[in-house]
Amino acid sequence: MYALTSTDTLRLWEQAQMQRSPERSRALVAAASPGDGETILRALPLGTCHARILALRRATLGPLMPCEARCPACHEKMEFNVSADGLLENAARARATVDVEHDGTTFTFRPPTLGDVLDAQHHDDPEAFLARRCFVDPEGAEVAAEVVREAEDKLFDADPLALVVLGLACPACGADWRETLDVAGYVLHELGRQAQALLYDIHRLACAYGWTEGDVLALSPWRRRQYLAWAEA
Question: Is residue 171 part of a domain?
């Protein structure tokens, strides 16, 4: 997995300002999969998409992901690191399908893909749409609501990175709770902070030396820091 360049970071962040959440995820997956076309990207299970985004984040910013949360019991603010390596280990447990037994019939479902989620946002009931889309066999069978609910629970186990849930414990009061980590949203937030810092550096160097954005981005980070130090001296 290659690391994002400064130009990549600015492009992704700019795109994200005009996109809804599923399209933002798609943009990150595409950046992490430069050799894959749209058909391949849409067929990727959500867990695989999140694995690629995490690998891209690890290559660009390192494996430790600083996070914060507030205890729901005492409201203590917590700061902690999540390991991208640790999360990526869960990807090995992914399965292609799950079976649900009901009234003597075996119903088979597959985990949702990126294409499923992109299409679901255009429907009034996205969850019902995903349930129908991910139902594999037997073809044409009526699927009871309780079957769908059981399938949803099993699909989380079949695709562990589709929904990343962190188990947390408050050091102040000892309360335990769970928080969901929005993988794409987290990485885009980090890239946004990087992009804003880059734009400010471009602004300062353009004012000091008359350079264009391309001139500044062509510099290595080390050389950029040297010129910034001299410009502010």
Answer: no
**137 bridge partner residues:** 108
Sorting pLDDT into bands at 50, 70 and 90, what band is 69?
Answer: very high
Contacts of 160 (CB under 8 A, 6+ apart): 47, 90, 91, 93, 94
Half-sphere exposure of 53 (CA within 13 A, CB side): 31
What the block records as the tokens of 68 is 């914060």
Residue 19 lies in a domain: yes
Total tally of structural domains belonging to the chain: 2
**pLDDT computed for residue 131 by the predictor:** 84
For residues 20 and 87, membership in a common domain is answered with: yes
87 and 202 belong to one structural domain = yes
Q: Which of 8-12, 44-48, 145-149 has the lowest mean pLDDT?
A: 145-149
Q: What are the backbone dihedrals phi and psi of residue 102, each rounded to the nearest 5 degrees, phi first?
A: -155, 120
Hey, which residues does 99 pair with through a beta bridge?
A: 108
Q: Is 208 among the domain residues?
A: yes
For residues 122 and 147, give the distance between their C-alpha atoms in angstroms, rounded to a whole number.
24
Name, in order, each residue with C-beta under 8 angstroms of 43's C-beta and a sequence gap of 6 or more.
113, 114, 115
Q: Of the ranges 11-25, 115-129, 139-153, which one carries the lowest mean pLDDT score? A: 139-153
Q: How far is CA 156 from CA 83, 98, 138, 178, in A?
A: 20, 10, 21, 15
CA distances (Å), 90 to each of 26, 50, 59, 101, 163, in order? 21, 11, 18, 26, 11
Percent of the chain at pLDDT > 70 equals: 100
Q: Which of 117-131, 145-159, 188-202 has the highest mean pLDDT?
A: 188-202
